[in-house]
Amino acid sequence: MLEVVYDGTKTYGKTYYWFMFTTNGVYLNVATGWDAPNNVPSGTQYLDYLSTATNATSNHWQMFSASSSNAVELVRYTSGADANQSWFVLKGGTTPRCFTIVNGAMTVQPWMDLTKGFFAGFSYLLPTVAYSTGAQARSALMRFARGPALRRDLLLGAGLNGSTNGNDYFNYPALVVALSYGATGNSSNDSANNYRAHFGNSGGNSLGYNGAITLPSNFSNANPAFSSNSNPVFHSMPFMPYITESLPADFGITFHYATNSFSQGDTFVVSAGTEEWEVLDYAANASAVTGASPLFLARVV
Fold first, then answer.
1. Residue 167's closest CA among 148, 181, 180?
2. Mean pLDDT value across residues 24-47
3. Contact 58/165 with Cβ under 8 angstroms?
4. Domain for residue 243, yes or no?
5. How many helices and strands, by DSSP H and E, does the chain display?
6. Dihedral, CA of residue 81, residue 125, residue 153 and residue 109, to nearest 10
């Protein structure tokens, strides 16, 4: 269990992150109070906790899948520019899970009323390609999603009001995207319809395709404003609208067009020996040259 104090003067200024580790994976739930002698959440069920059962599969959201035949490793990356910000990578025998938990030293927005409800500061990455076929498949997104929620959650509580189904507390909140960044493909024959289908107001996709903040595509084939190609790393932008801090300068996003083969831990080189980044999370676009592959990076040089 991890206790994070966002504002100790407020009724719900503390959030408890309840992790479980099994041979099947890593699980997470949240609570507003903690019964330390019995090592279970406290308060009112569904408002302050989902259940006090210690069965991870029924009481927790599975944030990472594993097996007894693979070792699981948790790696912490702490910013050199802002020591209060860290990102974590769970890896071992399956797709890595990259996530963060908002540090108590960071500032929750003043319009988040912690006297009425609590703030769950867990965020994880959902990098993705828009579609599997068609022109839109060249575009990509880096999405910052949220984890499990409760009724007293200031952000997602209303959507759970009245439900006693545990899956509602996991599956619905864990697919809610707080913020999303996107890039168009490196293609000379894209159209306004393709762009709108991925980033605009068409389709009503609940996973956050619509309304993404589009980042520059610095490739001449995609944008005639550029006479030469480059893959800039975008950093120092907001990743969660509920806090005042942005990503520090040594965590960033890029969209790569030259290859669709990536692994967690690969090095992304902007300038050898001067600016190098480690890949923490990614999605590989099947369109290797024209497709944008989103990468989340930590600077190492």
1. 148
2. 95
3. no
4. no
5. 3, 18
6. 30
